[in-house]
Amino acid sequence: MAVSSSSPLSRTLRIGIVGFGPFGQFLAKTMMKQGHTLTATSRSDHSQLCARLGISFFRGMNEFIEAENDVIMLCTSILSLTEVLESLPLHCLKRPTLFADVLSVKEGPREVLLQVLPEESDVLCTHPMFGPESGRDGWNGLAFMYERVRIRDEATCSSFLHIFESEGCRMLEMSCEEHDKLAARSQFLTHTIGRILSEMEIEPTPIDTKGFQTLIQLKDSTIRDSFDLYSGLFVHNKFAKQELNNLVLAFEKVKQKLEEMNEKSDLSMQPL
């Protein structure tokens, strides 16, 4: 159940961001606009950028953990989540904290969070189904998936979800397994087609149809994301492998139909 805009539980939060790459920066700007207090830590030094944004940047993990954040938002890559979590000095947490991930796969991260985090830490798995490109003009109408995995502090959880609801997101509460099953069919296939088009090196032509222009846009948008993100969609989503097999089988079926039509055409052209 999401919090309505009039909910008394909605309050400003102290949010710590682990992994201040492009996606973390993208989310941070809206959170700052809403009045939340942000801290950040990352492998790369983003201290100057954070200073301009009004965000406290910590190079040391101990200082970051000791900053008493209400929420620690995990914006790492899918492939590095376990390593990053295990590197956090969780024993330095001064009070129960809500950990919220924003990764593009959910079931694997959910299990890692439950295994590594202290029992007293709350866990919220989320996936904003948009990014710096699709959300550059606002988040209104864009999907935000979440599962309350282990929540005892409802006020903090609801206030965090309100960040996205107040921007007009479509709030979709579902299990991590259901998300991954749907995402394998939609997000993973989209990225796979885009990567295939990139390998084919398709470029605009003077006679492009609207459909071909859409393919160009798909190629361009998917290759903006790192290959680590794409491979994570495959490696850490158990449903993706079957979707890849389905794509290969579908291609072979279409190819076979074309070859059969070609054979019929050749026969019809032969002299009687």
TrEMBL record:
Keywords: Coiled coil, Oxidoreductase. Residues 13-272 form the Prephenate/arogenate dehydrogenase domain. One of its GO terms (molecular function) is arogenate dehydrogenase (NADP+) activity. One of its GO terms (biological process) is tyrosine biosynthetic process. InterPro entries: NAD(P)-bd_dom_sf (IPR036291), PDH_N (IPR046826), Prephen_DH (IPR003099), TYRAAT1/2 (IPR045011), TYRAAT2_C (IPR059064). Residues 237-264 form a coiled coil. The keyword Zinc does not apply. It comes from the Eukaryota. This is Prephenate/arogenate dehydrogenase domain-containing protein.
